[in-house]
């Protein structure tokens, strides 16, 4: 029974992990897309220390039920409705999502959306299309961000928090330390959802990665000193493991955590978003499984200090990758993001005519004039009566 429950939980979580960021990115206004796409973490850490695992499972089942009931009253994303030819429903959904009152207020966005959908429908969406160069770049970016998210060590750190504090020998109760770590994650995951639209994706990711580098460097040094001290915790440094992990969780929660999940919904090309999202999510969870499975083996091979320094090394590589290759998507519509990928491919080596046809502009200059990035007022200006 437990195995069946775990299978169903994993299956449904996988479906949710694909659908949620894509749906949110498609229905959200560009000015708040980052905030809405950033995920929020559960507080299992807090009540898990005081109740049995059966009660914890029952408590954890409440939120999915609440989400299910609430989603019954939420319309489909406007893009999906346009793809299905349901223009009236798409207009109604846009009015609701944008807080608008009149059809004229959402007509410009609907017109752009129709053009974008038509361009996407003209392209095939099979497995072979994942290998096209304009598609490979955004998929590879999303995969690499997932890779650095997993190899930052977040899953084993959270799953083995009690064991980590127990092995540190610090004079702090390992269960209450775990509660502190979980509470910090919840608080700063919420904060990260708002910071992502203020600072942008790249800056938060770089701050996050470098802060995690420093955290793991200090934590590894603590375990190195303990090893040099014959397995005895260094005097006066009992506070260091908890402080290091708090900084680590804060850094993860404001950058790599929320941005890692939201980026899939932002940068994947529309015509392969379903297939690519499934592949990326499956790869991400497989890497998470492998990292958690072999975490203790890594510690046995490298020692505690070597393991955390290894995680810090991956975070450092992630910092340099983001600095040199990760594009900023703040303030850009989904079509503008795809246009940038297409333009970067056009500037590459000479290609065949069929390849050039695959990268034709998503919007004509006239239709592209409607953009929330070039119209900072967004729907506020529409509500004030500026429909130009």
Give a written overview of the molecule.
It comes from Orchesella cincta (Springtail). InterPro entries: MFS_dom, MFS_sugar_transport-like, MFS_trans_sf, MFS_Trehalose_Transporter, Sugar/inositol_transpt, Sugar_transporter_CS. GO terms for molecular function: transmembrane transporter activity. The protein is mostly helical. It folds into 2 domains: 237 residues, MFS general substrate transporter like domains (Growth Hormone, Chain: A, Up-down Bundle); 87 residues, no CATH class. Helices cover 73% and strands 0% of the residues. The longest helix is centred in the C-terminal third of the chain and has 31 residues.
CATH architecture of the largest domain: Up-down Bundle
Assign the CATH superfamily of the largest domain: MFS general substrate transporter like domains
User: Which word captures the global form?
Assistant: globular
What percentage of the residues does DSSP assign to strands (E)?
under 5%
Order of SSEs:
HHHHHHHHHHHHHHHHHHHHH
CATH-derived topology of the largest domain = Growth Hormone, Chain: A
Largest beta-sheet characterization: none
Give start-end ranges of low-pLDDT stretches.
Answer: 40-44, 348-388
Number of helices: 21
The CATH class of the largest domain is identified as: Mainly Alpha
Distance between the termini: 60 Å
What's the rounded overall pLDDT mean?
A: 78
User: Over all CA atoms, what is the radius of gyration?
Assistant: 23 Å
Total count of domains: 2
